[in-house]
Amino acid sequence: MARQRLPDLSIVLYFLREGLGWSQTDLAKAAGTSANLLNDYEAGRKRLTRERLEHLLSFMDLQPGRIDAVLAELEASRAGSRPASGPPDRFEARRLRVEALAARFGRLATSFARAALNLLTAGSEAVHAREEAEHLWRWLKRQKPEDQVALIEEDRRFQKWGLAVLVTEESLAAAPNRPKESLELARRALRIAERVGGSKEWRWRIQGYCGGILCNSLRACNELPAARDARVRARKLWEDGAPGDPGLLNEAMLPWIEAACHRAQRELPQARKRIEEALELDDGELRGKILLTKANIHDALGEPEASTAAILEALPHIDAEREPRLAWGARFNLLVDLIHLGRAEEARQRLPEIRRLAEKLGGELDLQRVAWLEAKIAFGLGDLREARNRFEQVRRAFDKPELSYLYALVSAELSQVLLEQGETVRVRAIAEEMFWIFRRQEVPVEALKALRIFCEAARQETATVELARRIVRYLYRAQGDPELRFEEAGAE
Fold first, then answer.
1. pTM of this structure
2. pLDDT band at 88 (very low <50, low <70, confident <90, very high)
3. Helices marked H in 32-90 — which ranges?
4. Overall average pLDDT of the 75-90 stretch
5. Angle ∠(225,476,223) on CA atoms, nearest 5
């Protein structure tokens, strides 16, 4: 007896539910019905209407158009498997043998079709989730913070995985310059993730994803012990939730964030391992950012050549029109690396590009940083007069409490020029000033120790250009590694 073909709508319900990782029990609970009834619908034992199907799919945040997409795929699959019309020809016997062979592998074909439909569903659902999230976020961010929290906790419309992911992106963008805002956004994203629908595995997966972003925000706020705890929790949730993810989340995100956190905590072997994992998993979406983090790890390891190579590899993956600030930072760090490697002429050739980006960004500090690069390049090319004038200009611009670290850096670089010109008395005055500014600003202890060494040498008029160079390079590296000791960087 031939097996009765399942109704198309029953197949649609099964594939969409499975494709998003929902069990029959999960969907039944969300829809307020029984898992047995859903089983009857999918097995064709009870008639499933289009209206009823749309109602069930709404609890998985799916639009009616998803039904038509799957129906179209089913019809296309059937059309491809139908025999050609018309009288049999001399190839009919061969065709029948092929059909018989195909029947033997029916189960394999069914599994392949299921996987293909799952991918189709995940892809279309990701697009829909993004569109919906953008609409929700535009409305939500106009509300007061306390109202945002209430809506996230009480209104099901805002408990969507797509919105959680969009808020994590906002958090990532804010982290470099607005770390406290980044932390609030990360916590908001995690609140949403804890309330999304679906299987427990899917909820764990999205919580692990958002927990990684929370780790990043805590790192940006320099709350490293809390960042470590958040990283461990995020990794466990992410791994436990793997069976519930139909491919909707970027698998490279968490190892990338973990690498940055390991680097901040001076766990450099772990940082190197995670960044390579992130590069292997990346589909191209995060390539530029991952490579910039890899450059930072190489810099922390005292590997300037590898850092420079990673930045050069990253640049083609960074859209300067869409992310001008990221493009600017990458190019600035590249030129600094080139100058430290003695490749000042190469840096000079790249200067017009970074000047155009600074003018586009329009910030006065960015323009002063360009002048700073010009000073460094002039010194690297042996033009002491131009270098001195530029360093003096930038030093005046950086003479502000909030820029004390940059002021010390420029002062150390100016000292190199003055030592070349034999002005040891001026160097002593600059060194004393740098030391007391750092002491008032409560900069990291190790950086203060390094400046004390330079200050003592300047006071005794034994400071050399080489010592000043080592101080400069140390202060650059210590920006991202406050615990780095001057002695550790002294062999460069």
1. 0.70
2. very low
3. 35-43, 50-58, 65-81
4. 52
5. 15
